[in-house]
Design goal:
With 347 residues, this protein is mostly helical. It has 2 domains: 3-81 and 210-243, no CATH class; 86-208 and 247-346, no CATH class. It has 18 helices and no strands.
């Protein structure tokens, strides 16, 4: 009997026992990462305290650490996401009043697996379900910007206080920006074919799943999400390792520090044309911080890359007229600027 078949049967028959074993093994490996990175550097014919040694140690500690954190959280979120299909998400948002619906939409964006590449089909589905435009924007801002990948990596690299503050401010940007866009009554700036689509009632019948089914959903999420972003993680950590090993201490403070007033808007402008995601940009954020860059500045850069990327704007152009896209960019960019200045002021 194949090992995969035995494993699948174990998950099906003993899902709770499987989860217990998985948690124990995960923590045992995670605790050994520091020793592993030291072992790698000490095995190589290089000086551990050199620039190259520091860069290699950074890479071989952070790469498995981030991948393990991401795999664990994505697995858990995959189980949670089994409750939130696109149909169910639309059903939960349709028919609610603005304000309350903006909060619900932004919160759902955190726990649902949709990214900016899903913007067009989600946007169309929300319009067909009768979800208000501003509420739709709250979801579309929150889903890519305040997702499990960003929160997991921020928690792993900077601790829970930074992760919680980012979550609170990111949600605030999504809620307020969506509410403002809704109040501007910009429905006429949807492309005509989107605005004229027939409405339908969102499906409110949710599939029943067993615990083993939800574990399978967790594995599917890991295969999908980690399978798509691992290369960005490795590339981002490689860049971060080079910055960590070779950029002089304090260099970034000269143009990304707290006292440089124009650093935050410049970071937002530079982030927009880039094409990456949280997995690729957060390791770079970590390395920049270690060299003197201000947290608010680099987080503003990260948020603009994730929430206002040029490829996403090009995709959204299929369903939004130019004026609505520019308004969307202006409102979201203002929120990101606020987040950057707040982080620089309080930390």
């Amino acid at each position: 009997m194949k090992a995969e078949t035995v494993f699948n049967k174990f998950v099906q028959k003993q899902p709770i026992l499987f989860l217990v074993f998985a948690i124990i093994i995960w923590f045992a490996i995670y605790k050994g990462l520091v020793g592993f990175s030291h072992l790698v550097v000490n095995t190589l014919p290089i000086e551990p305290k050199s620039h190259l040694g520091g860069a290699i140690e950074f890479f071989f500690y952070d790469a498995p650490k981030v991948l393990m954190l991401l795999t664990g959280i994505v697995f858990i979120m995959g189980m949670i996401n089994s409750y939130f299909t696109p149909e169910r998400t639309r059903a939960l948002l349709a028919g609610k009043t603005e304000g309350v619906a903006n909060v619900a939409a932004a919160s759902l964006g955190v726990v649902t697996p949709f990214c900016s590449c899903s913007a067009v089909p989600l946007f169309i589905g929300f319009v067909q379900a009768g979800v208000p435009l501003g509420v739709t924007f709250s979801f579309l801002i929150s889903a890519p910007m305040v997702n499990e990948v960003a929160l997991t990596m921020l928690f792993g690299l900077f601790g829970w206080k930074i992760a919680i503050l980012y979550l609170a401010l990111g949600l605030s940007v999504a809620i307020i920006a969506g509410y403002v866009l809704g109040k501007l009554k910009l429905e006429n700036y949807l492309e005509d074919w989107v605005r004229d689509m027939p409405k339908y009632d969102a499906d409110k019948v949710f599939a029943k799943m067993t615990l083993s089914d939800r574990i399978e959903s967790g594995f599917a999420s890991v295969k999908d999400i980690v399978g798509r972003v691992w290369i960005y993680i490795i590339a981002g950590i490689a860049v971060g390792a080079l910055i960590h090993g070779y950029v002089p201490e304090g260099m970034m403070a000269s143009f990304m520090g707290k006292d440089v007033w124009w650093a935050v808007p410049l970071a937002v402008i530079l982030g927009v044309p880039m094409y990456t995601n949280a997995a690729g940009v957060i390791p770079i954020v970590q390395a920049l911080l270690g060299k003197g860059a201000a947290l608010g500045t680099v987080l503003a850069f990260m948020m603009s890359v994730i929430a206002l990327s040029l490829p996403e704007m090009i995709i959204l152009r299929k369903v939004l007229k130019l004026r609505l896209i520019l308004t969307f960019i202006g409102v979201v960019a203002s929120g990101i600027l606020l987040v950057g200045y707040v982080f620089n002021a309080v930390l």
